[in-house]
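User: For my dataset I need records formatted as: sequence, then structure tokens, nothing else. Please produce one.
Assistant:
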Amino acid sequence: MSIKLSDRTLAYAEELTDAVLGLDALYREESGDEVGLAVLNLSPEPRTPESFSDYEDVVEAFSTLRDRAGDLPERDRRTYYQQFCDSMCAFAEWRQDGLPLSEQIERFLHVPADPPSTAELNELRAELSSVLDRLGYEGDAQSQCRAWKDATTVPAAEAPEVLESEMDRMRDLTLAGLDTAPENVDQIGAAGVSGASFNAKCDFANGEVVINTDPQLTRPWLRKLAVHEGYPGHVLQFSLRRQWYEDSRAPADGLLSVVNCASSTTFEGIADSGLALLDTQPEADHAASLVGRYQMGIATAAAWRYHAEDWPEQDVHEWLSEQAIYGDEEWVESRVGFLTAPERATLMWSYWHGEPAVTSAIESVDPSAFDTFVEFLYGRMHSTESITQFDPNGST
């Protein structure tokens, strides 16, 4: 069963998209940030961004759009678009007057601003140690992780080829496991870089996933990246949004990938919850997922120390090195480079809150409505609240 959006909502999304592109243009010009707010634009034809002279104009425009979103027929669209417009207003306020980190997190992402607690991080370490124990590794969590990493390491020169092979495999599993995924979903390659401040990124516009080969890489970790950056993660997200927009099944704002906004958390959560969506997670993949969750937890805690508690960068670096039971020094360098950038400070919270929110939504769906839920999940942008408002009957 398909759940079609109303014509009124599709028309609203066209206006919203041009407003976002207008804000993106103003921000790029004002800040010199070449990555921008809208980091990807999949529009099949050139669009005409709204023209903003300053951030006060931005706040006025998105405040009006927020009010209009309250009249849309679909409950989840009312929730999401109101929150998204709040995000854009907050982003404009941040650029104009500044906002403390806690307000950025809460108003950009609409998630709690607290850092991961010591208890949460210790629980992840214990669960990871239990999984590695079942895989045959002995000792404490750090010893187990290091031994597991040494046993499964892939040489840096071979990492892009291994990643591409894993993405091909995950693409096949995704097409077999999701009836809503069309056969012509994009196929993508892989490339390695050095000196980057990211683990990996989906460069969808150029048809490749770019991986940082400086940290020590393992085959289970590369499989995790294949799921997150490739299938059923970002490549599938972008492919379906573009195809369904052209088929008038998805709104125009799905053509954009926008950071620091209400959709950031579920965007990353969908990518991190891929194995839950496919209902397959061998023990080694479970361990890799726990490693990723733990590493994101300590990176999020490090971001809080740097931006909210004003720790010096060197102290943050040392703390992260002490906590990184799996990561090596190159990973620590990369994370510090990422989390200290002011324009990306909140992104850690997107990852931290994303996977639990999306996995919980997946697990709550009745199997009879699963295909409809996948269209709801991939065909619309979501906040952590709107994703809970799935109605298989499409009612308002």
